[in-house]
Amino acid sequence: MGLQTQLRRAVAVFRFVALGYPVLLGALAFEDLLHPVAAALLVVVLVAWTAAVSHRYTRKGYEDLVVYADLAVTAAAVAVSAWALAVDGRAVPISLGPWLAGVVLAWGAAWGRRSGAVAGGVIALFGMVFRGGVSENTVNEAALLVLTGFTVGHLVRLGVEAEERTRRATERTAAAKERERLARDIHDSVLQVLALVQRRGNEIGGEAAELGRLAGRQEEALRALISSEAYQHPLDGRRDLRELVGRHAGGSVTVAAPATPVRLPAATAREVAAAVASAVDNVREHCPEGTRVWLLVEDDGGAVTVSVRDDGPGIAPGRLAEAAAEGRLGVAQSIEGRVRELGGTVTVVSGPGLGTEVEMRVPRPRTEGEADGDAHRSR
């Protein structure tokens, strides 16, 4: 049960309890009421509305139309109570008292501290207009309502943010434990097999030695992956894409990147790095030994672009479509699929004898702070 759900239930209980204030005072002064029938009808309407709106909030949450209607009904109740709860011999009618704070609490919980303060101000203004103008009682009531709306809205926002941080921390802990378990399983199975293939291939020689070399390369890449910070803490902050892409540097692969960090959310950086790794693997698999590869990382602020270019034999026109139709989905899924899920695009430029260039462009996601700001924006 989340904080908002508990708060809505607490507010519902408060509103029913607060109804006791005008009901009790009205009952004690019933013989002196100028309009006792109207007072009784007003109480019935207040009870019915409180029950209906509390049920709606508890079941459906704070819906815009219902929250606005709640304010309108409460303001109308203030105006009507000035006549229906008038007492013979008293200049000021009986007040609805704490019940008025119910709608202020709803506005603050639904839309934040400024909205809560606005709702309190509106109800206070109706009280001044219909209950004797500006006086000590109406000014005190106004101050209490405005401060209540502002304070509750602020506390609710802090509580929701704390609840979200706790949820994220729990997810990070669970994800880290799962990845540690997978890393152990990979070490005890896949890595051991790859090491065995490399060793036996070198012993046999010939084509087996080439298989052993490829197995050794994959073993190194897999060990680097499961020991990397990006793998061990995939949800912890942001990652520098240069570090992930830079692991390919060496031998026939040249990496060029900005001098400053190219920071992306960990999940985004990991997917981009996986797409780049797939493109580099394609070069090693389909191009002759010694084919040179250039990796270029660019960051223009709004998007990050990684280009993988080689001087291999190139790709014949239509070959990528044929490979996808044959079920060989290295480019279609490992590269284009990953980048497309990130909202980016992939451009492949190639031709026989011209080499191949794969350009992956990914928009820079908004930071969590920006997203939280939108989520808690007050109306």
From TrEMBL:
InterPro entries reported for this sequence: DUF5931, HATPase_C_sf, HATPase_dom, Sensor_HK_TwoCompSys, Sig_transdc_His_kin_sub3_dim/P
GO MF terms here are:
phosphorelay sensor kinase activity; protein dimerization activity
User: Where is the segment annotated Disordered?
Assistant: 350-379
Alphabetically list the UniProt keywords. Answer: Kinase, Membrane, Transferase, Transmembrane, Transmembrane helix, Two-component regulatory system
List membrane-spanning regions. 12-30, 36-53, 65-85, 91-110, 117-134, 140-160
Every copy of the Histidine kinase/HSP90-like ATPase domain together lies at: 267-366
* Cited SMART domains: HATPase_c
State if Ribonucleoprotein is listed as a keyword: no
Give residue spans, biased composition: Basic and acidic residues.
358-379
**Single GO cellular component annotation?**
membrane
Q: Name one Pfam family in it.
A: HisKA_3
Q: Which domain of life is it from?
A: Bacteria
Which NCBIfam families does the entry mention? HK_morpho_MacS
Q: What is this protein called?
A: DUF5931 domain-containing protein
